[in-house]
Fold this protein.
Amino acid sequence: MIQKETQLNVCDTCSVWVVNTFHIYRGFRHRIGKFGDYIKVSIRNVKPESSLKKGKKRKAIIVRHVFGSLKKDGSFSKFNNNVCVLLKKRTSPIGKEIEGPIFYGFKKKKFVASFAGRV
């Protein structure tokens, strides 16, 4: 469950380490973001050679979260940290590769196709 002011790690290769959530695109009265939701973040911690600067605002999509997810077959998956991927447009990420696992239900979206088999 991702709320406002939640700090997330970034798992793609865009040279950003930590971002801070300040808006969740989920609709009226939805204050909690879950797996696969779009969020608006501000960049908090970057590598020195990065073209992105601290304090810039970007859209992101939640890839993993600590709060578990129950699948239809009855299995339960849970991750150790909250992770997102920064986006240029609706489905085009800034980085070239994703580091680490992705929840199974995410593979059905067009998002993973933009990485061209590098997941």
User: Anything to note?
Assistant: The CA atoms of residues 87 and 93 lie 4 Å apart.
